[in-house]
Amino acid sequence: MHDIKAIRENPGAFDAALARRGDTPVSTQVLALDEARRAKISAAETAQAEQNKASKLVGAAKAKGDEAEFERLRTLVSDKKAEVTAMQAEAKDLDAQLTDMLARIPNLPADDAPDGADEADNVEVNRWGDVPAFDFKAKEHFEIASVAASMDFETAAKTSGARFVMLKGAVARIHRALAQFMIDTHVDENGLTEHMTPVLVRDEAMYGTDKLPKFGDDSYQTTNGWWLIPTSEVTLTYSVAGDVLEEAALPRRMTAHTLCFRSEAGSAGRDTSGMLRQHQFEKVEMVSVTHPDQSDDEQKRMLRCAEDMLERLGVPYRTVILCTGDMGFGARRTFDIEAWLPGQNAYREISSVSTTGDFQARRMNARFKPADGGKPQFVHTLNGSGLAVGRCLIAVLENGQQADGSVKLPDVLAPYLSGKTTLAVDGTLS
Q1: For the segment 157-197, what is each residue's pLDDT rounded down to a tens digit?
Q2: Rounded-to-10 torsion of CA 242, 246, 250, 252
Q3: How do residues 278-329 score in pLDDT, each as one tens digit?
Q4: What is the CA angle 25-31-36, rounded to 5?
Q5: Nearest by Cα to 234 from 218, 246, 250, 245
Q6: What spatial distance separates the first Cα and last Cα of the chain, rounded to whole Å?
Q7: 74: exposed, middle or buried (C-beta count within 10 Å: 0-12, 13-18, 19+)?
Q8: 276 C-beta neighbours (distance < 10 Å), count
Q9: DSSP 305-332
Q10: Alpha carbon separation from 23 to 26, 41, 106 (Å, rounded)
Q11: Per-residue pLDDT, 68
Q12: Contacts of residue 144, Cβ cutoff 8 Å, sequence gap at least 6
């Protein structure tokens, strides 16, 4: 959500920032609606004052026995009351229109976000690991002999339709081990507090985390109005909605491992093979709520937490900063981490780490009380995947594949797999 006062003060800068995203100027429409709203409020206040003044004179006219004046004033009070009610209703409607308009305008990019139109203009900032050189043709995850029987798309399609998978046996256990490894590392080493959150939320939570109103088609809604979360960013971030936190309590660092649900609207024909793009998946999320002065450093810290996961797993990756035309709706700055997938001979996104500034905080009225006793200020919120569990499974399987169809697993997973380090060709752990 944007600060209307900031738009009034510098509409040109607001439009220029939107133009960097490739969006058309909107300040003229916003300010026209704002002016109409403020004019209606002012007119209602004037009419209210006239009503109050006439009300005070009614009694005096009655006491004097001036029936004509008494009736005139009583009629005036009644007319003004109706006029005030009508204008207040119009002002409320204009305010709702303005709020809705502001809610549909994306966040303004940070000054250091590179300009660009789409993913081709993203800028690589880091690369780690050596891309494996196989002496055989690398397979995609679902083609690997030790994996194929345990990654069951046919049964999932029978129960649920396309873009679902049923994992079985050792592959299901490796998936679970990855999630446990991520959560344990974030809690024990990265200082995040683990949460177990609902996966069903109300409109307010989706709105407060900028998923509504613009992106309702990207999520699933139950018949009684709950939304299935697209990520636990929603539940973790909205946990501070309406709060006034003590400055000393910041930053608040949280993590959760949850099911996530996305309709994948607009992705028809993309990644239809395998489990790269699913309607239901699991993710370990990181969320930080910070003082505004700390948010840029906090984003760097969160990015390192996510990158470190891949380094420990031995998965080559590259990190890019997204250009203005490729950033998400609520982001000011986003770094994507892309894991190397030998089966596709390409880097594919496995984590996004974004700062929203006070964009979400304004929508959900999340503030902190400065230690010096000043006026409460909006917090900054950040979110990042740490990591997407299914995509991490894909990366581990593809990078660890062997010529005989087995998979060499990362050593860091051994404690979660009873010391086993290999997915054998027959689909068992050894």
Answers
A1: 999 999 999 999 999 999 999 999 999 999 999 999 999 99
A2: -50
A3: 999 999 999 999 999 999 999 999 999 999 999 999 999 999 999 999 999 9
A4: 145
A5: 218
A6: 53
A7: middle
A8: 21
A9: HHHHHHHHHT--EEEEEPPTTTS-TT-S
A10: 9, 31, 9
A11: 77
A12: 397, 398, 401, 405, 407
Residue among 355, 385, 340, 417 at smallest CA distance from 175: 417
The strand ranges marked E within 356-412 are 367-369, 377-378, 380-388, 407-408
> Residues near 126 by Cβ (< 8 Å), separated by ≥ 6?
307, 318, 319
Q: Which letter does DSSP use for residue 129 in this model?
A: S
* Residue indicated by tokens 């010529």: 403
Candidates 124, 126, 115, 170; CA nearest to 148 is 170
Here the tokens at position 124 are 């690589």
Are 307 and 337 a contacting pair, CB within 8 Å? yes
Model pLDDT, residue 53: 84
For residue 37 the two structure tokens come to 């709203």
CA 222 to each of CA 200, 201, 237, 258: distance values in angstroms, whole numbers, following the listed order: 9, 10, 22, 18
Place of tokens 């250091």: 112
Give pTM, 2 decimals. 0.93
Higher pLDDT, 67 or 381: 381
Reported in sequence order, the residue ranges of 28-138 that DSSP labels E, i.e. its strands, are 123-128
Structure-token match 């109409």, residue found: 36
